[in-house]
Amino acid sequence: MATRKFDLVIAANRLPVDRVVGPDGRNEWHRSPGGLVTAMDSVMRHRDGAWVGWAGEAGEAPAPFAEAGMWLHPVPVSREEITSYYEGFSNETLWPIYHDVIVPAHFHREWWADYRAVNERFAEAVCDVAAPGAKVWIHDYQLQLVPALVRERRSDVRIGWFNHIPFPPVELFAQLPWRSRIIEGLLGADYLGFQRQADAQNFLRAARQLDGRTTKGETVTTTDPDGSVRVVRASAVPISVDYEGLDELARTPAVEQRAEQIRASLGDPEVVMLGVDRLDYTKGIRHRLKAYEELLVDGTLRSPEVTFVQVATPSRERVAAYRQLRSEVETTVGRINGTYSAIGRPALHYLHRSYPREEMAALFQMADVMLVTPLRDGMNLVAKEYVTCRHDDGGALVLSEFTGAWHHMKQAFVCNPHDIEGLKLTMMRAIETDPRQKRRQMRALRRQVSENDVQTWADRFLTNLELAPERPDRTGAKGARP
Ligand code: ADQ
What we know:
By secondary structure, this protein is of the alpha/beta class.
């Protein structure tokens, strides 16, 4: 059977679905949770495209299939490659380097070899489904070699790459033994999109300082293997949420009733604080719990008048640093509850599982203070989802200055999560500020997110891709490498 061809091809590590065996023993595909899927889902709903990605199980891949209005094209990843390409190179080498080395990065040449091999396989799959002249949109740090590998095979397509996580400062990126290969891989694209201007600038600086490329403004000049000179643009296109869809969901009577019900089952406390994160060391969960515990210790906050709900989604549980984080967080939760809970009234509710969208919307709606305290985060969609769900203009957002989100959500209560005293003061300010002032802040935040939603993000990315590649003489960039 001839492979179907598409004018828009998305490539991301994971397909947006998980296989679930139904009660009748048949395969069903359920939408999987996570930032990228949440964002792309609403983008693909309006466009006829194909999505190339791993289906989440080791070994042979299922045949391509249509689901949720998309053509899904699974790429096989073996058991060994899950360990080397995914858990190893992506999550133990790149993830720490790209997030300020909060935990040490590990370098293994075998991991790199498999990273390259899996990137080749993704590039082949992309070329299989891309129609002549198609737009190819590659996502994230797991697929940084795919742009150049696609270009080698298909000079007719337009190639864009978007980084969901930060791009590190040159001093950290320089540690990577394969840094020049990664720069070369990315420069196969026509357009490179980043969450913040600073991320785009970090990439441009790395290309210039570590790889001797010529940069000018937002562009880098590169020479392809066939000798042709191209200019690649790198700029910021911050991701956002499906504001309209989520706002509508949050206004449904079912979600509003559920929000009241959750609050009642917490014992109708005066203040509910909420944290929602993947259980990842970048999210600052430990810092947040420490601040909360100290506020209970010194009597500034009292349980059960105040309670804290922490939703921590299971994540990367086979990676040692994540297992250690889980054990530390759960020890702290146990200690806080052992000391400050009353029977039937925990001081801290810890929920280590995934929830449907409706339940998340109800949680956001009932929380007086949302704590988003990452040590480093590309964007952080939770902050934007929280304000989207607050159509009553209630609530308060505490937001770390180390998230991409903070750069355009400056009406939030800003914090530096490393500064525990400062974090405690900010949490108290978020509780005690005059409600009228908080409403003003929330209105401004909601306006910001509504005017810059996920559609705006996708449109901006695709327009930038459309306008690329620019000719060297148009940008004035000179000095291509021989
Ligand atoms: P993540 O690190 O996964 O994303 P984030 O942006 O907060 O972080 O997105 C998490 C998503 O998962 C949100 O949509 C949230 O609602 C959802 N979620 C979290 N816990 C859940 C639970 N228990 N049940 C159901 N859903 C849950 C990466 C980058 C971010 C970047 C995004 C998008 O690390 O910086 O914002 O990609 O680019």
